[in-house]
Amino acid sequence: MRRRPLMAVFLLLATFGSAQAIPRYSVRYGQDCRLCHQNPTGGGQRSAYATQYLIPAEMVTFPWEEERLEAIDPQIGKNVSIGADIRTLHVVTEEGSGLDGFFQMQGEVYLSLSVDERNMLYFEQGMDRTYDLFGISYFLPWQGYVKVGRFAPAYGWRFADHTRLVRSELGFEPPALSDVGAEVGISPGDATFSLSVSNGAGGSTLDNDARPALVARAEERFSLGPLAISAGASALQHNGIVRRRAQTGPFAGLYWGRLSWLGEIDWVWTQAQGADEVRGLVATQEVALQLWSGVDLVGVYDYSDRDLDLKSGKTTGYSVGVEMLPQPFMSLQALVRSWDDVGVETTQTLLQAHFMY
């Protein structure tokens, strides 16, 4: 079996990973991302509620007693709070490769300054060039906000794993996932809507073609008896000088009992200057079974066809593993992942330790 060159790219992307949300929890709790994160579209620093109560008292296998919960305090001042994420990965590739061994997947620190209950300044610094830096003000109706600065536009499910093809193939891998611009969002009832305009410069600090990118996302959450449902759609449009790109597609999530499912499918149209338009398709499916509190059995299927007019060029990936949150601020993951990239197959075993605050 030949080694898969694309995996080297994926691992390098993971090495510079930025903190993301876990959409499974949003579906499981029937809430939008602001329940657990300072950023209303998810990812980055966790909210005081998540840090001080939800994670240590509800999500873990061994909840902390009240006395230990009282000692948790991310506030370093009256209006200033901090946070951090550290992920270390160990990889074993079938037949061995130069990629085997330990990788520092993530090192991220967060700092937020709450001017008052409606205004916040936010800074997130990761390894290499990955960072978010924005101000946000909640002054619109329906818990609406305006965000201006550098951030990752809200699109689809914001999976923590950047090797999910609906992240890496759609341009949401570090350091290019964040862009400079402005975003508006509202949350009437159980729905959320957001619209952002940004440079579309792929992580550069300045626009390189003076043509902005537009990203829109809409999601609705509701229940049918014991079944919790989240459903929505996203769209991105960037008419750059060198390349035009458009992508859109639905995403959905279901939660019933201890079982959850997340799915996303996106159609992509790209056209380089002087070339014909290329149509592609990207999809991800995730199924998770909560064995007990803090322990999930997770299976993932990834699919990508970069050119629907060609019979070749497809990538598929399968993974199965266990994610554990035995105690607050530390999670463990073990999974086996198999990829077939245009006929080149690779199987890997990954072990991950994640420390968070």
Structure in words:
- This protein is 11% helix and 53% strand.
- The protein is mainly beta.
- It has one domain: Porin.
- Strands 1-2-3-4-5-6-7-8-9-10-11-12-13-14-15-16 form a 16-stranded antiparallel beta barrel.
- It is globular, with a radius of gyration of 20 Å.
Number of strands: 16
Total domains = 1
CATH topology: Porin
The quaternary organization reads as single chain
Strand arrangement within the widest β-sheet reads 1-2-3-4-5-6-7-8-9-10-11-12-13-14-15-16
What is the CATH first-level class name? Mainly Beta
CATH architecture: Beta Barrel
CATH superfamily assignment? Answer: Porin
How are helices and strands ordered from N to C?
Answer: HHHHEEEEEHEEEEEEEEEEE
Overall pLDDT level: 87
Overall geometry comes to globular
- Helix content, binned percent: 10-25%
Low-confidence stretches: 1-19
| Largest sheet entry | 16 strands, antiparallel, barrel
Provide a count of the helices: 5
Using the CA coordinates, give the radius of gyration.
Answer: 20 Å
Distance between the termini: 41 Å
User: Into which percentage range does the β-strand content fall?
Assistant: over 45%
